[in-house]
Structures are given as structure tokens and as C-alpha cells.
Amino acid sequence: MTEHIGIVSCSPEGAALCYRTICIEAADIMGKHAFPEITMHGFSFKDYVQYLDVKDWEGVAGLMLSSAEKLAKTGAAFAICPDNTIHQPFDMIIKNSPIPWLHIAEEVAAEAVRQGYTRLGILGTRSLMEGPVYSTRLAAVGIEQKLPASKDRERINHIIFDQLVEGRFLSETRDYFNEVIEALKKDGCDAVVLGCTEIPLLMTEGKSTLPMLDSTRILARAALNKATGTILA
After folding, report:
1. What is the fold of 5-103+217-228?
2. Which regions of the chain does DSSP assign to beta strands (E)?
3. Which pLDDT tens digit goes with each residue over 155-195?
4. How far is the C-alpha of 126 from the C-alpha of 89, rounded, in Å?
5. Which residues are CB-neighbours of 233 under 8 A, at least 6 positions away?
6. pLDDT one-digit tens code per residue, 46-85
7. Residue 39, SS3?
8. In this model, does residue 207 exceed pLDDT 80?
9. Rounded to two decimals, what is the model's pTM?
């Protein structure tokens, strides 16, 4: 019997990609057209942005916990959130959540270890890149992180909020991301983390000069693993 997956949605594009990945890739485990029971709950993205703009992490945590409580009432056995930035108050959330969670950065770190990477470039919102979400989880498994230059962190942040979360994926933006990734490669990185769950919709396979760790799909596969008890290749 498979477990019921709860998805805490923040921005729509990332949540949709996570849901779609679970549904499509489950067929390899469960058979054609089959996937685990899934319930998604999300507040308006604007509700999150108002807290993110002032770095009110308690406010962010409150929204996530409210979603978890709703998911628990539907029978979800555990929760995932396909949004990297709002994992910052994770310790606050997990202490008060009615159901357990998978942590997106922990799942990415585990995949990086599996693939033998030692220095990862991090791409995401400015809060994500400069915050503790990845630095602490990667350090715990002996992996070094590198960030883009400050001016690039600011530009990437604007691109995420002004383009990607609105479903705008432009060729010139893809070219710019490739320039940033190339700079990370020159800085000794052996892979790059797509730490905004919309970036995988911009940077598809073969469009990067470094291997990409797609946090959205890695989390989705981890949820499938937990729900079905099957380790995905």
C-alpha cells in the first residue's frame, strides 16, 4: 500500500512541475497510469511574497504549517514543499507539524553524494543563495558550495520573481544563466544546483556546461521513494 503524499505549494510553476513529475515517473514503479494519492494545498503566492520581502520567516512558517494541517486532515502521510527558499524556517515547521516532511536540500545533498560531487554552485533566490538552507545541509555531508557573484545573485533574484514564477522562460535568460554556470565551473564547481524550482523549466538537459541537480524532480522522486518504498534509479 502506498502512502498519501501531501504537497505544500508556494509558487505555481514549481508546484505543478513537482506534481507532474510524481505522476509521470510513478508509472515505472506502479504501472501504467498509476501514481500515489496526492493532495496539494497552497495559499496565494502573494501571501508568501509579503513575508519574503521583509524576511519574516515566522510568517512563512505559519503558512506552511497551516497547509500541513490541512493536508494531514485529508490523510496525507507526509509533506513536501517544491520551493527551496521557504525551507529557511524548516526547523520551526518540523517541530510543530502534524506530519513529517522531506527537506528539499537534504534530498539534493543525498543525490550529490550519490553522484560523487564535491563542490556545487547554487542558483536560486537571493535569500536562498545567501541563506542557510543549502550551506548547512551540504556541509553536513562534506560538500562545498559556491555562489554566483553578488551582482549576479541580485539579477537572478529579479529574474525569478519577474519572469520564472510567471511562466516566462526567455532564450536570453537561458543564455545569461549559462554564463553564470560557466563562471561557477571556472570556480571549480563540478555541478550546479537548480535551487529555484522554476529554473528546471528554463535550463533543460543539455543546456548547461555543468551537470544540473534539479531540486524539483529530486524532491518528487524522493517523495515517490518514500510513498512506495521503492528506490528509483
Report:
1. Rossmann fold (3.40.50)
2. 5-9, 38-42, 78-80, 119-123, 144-146, 191-194, 212-214
3. 999 999 999 988 899 999 999 999 999 999 999 999 999 99
4. 16
5. none
6. 999 999 999 999 999 999 999 999 999 999 999 999 999 9
7. strand
8. no
9. 0.94
Instruction: Quote the CA–CA distance of 146 and 124 in Å, as a whole number.
Output: 12
- What cell numbers appear for 12 in the block? 505555481
CB of 213 within 8 A of CB of 108? yes
Residues of the chain with CATH 3.40.50.1860: 5-103+217-228, 104-214
- Specify the higher pLDDT residue, 217 or 232: 217
SS (H, E, C) 86-153: HHCCHHHHHHHCCCCECCHHHHHHHHHHHHCCCEEEEECCHHHHHCHHHHHHHHHCCCEEECCCHHHH
Q: Please state which CATH number belongs to domain 104-214.
A: 3.40.50.1860
Single-letter amino acid, residue 209: T
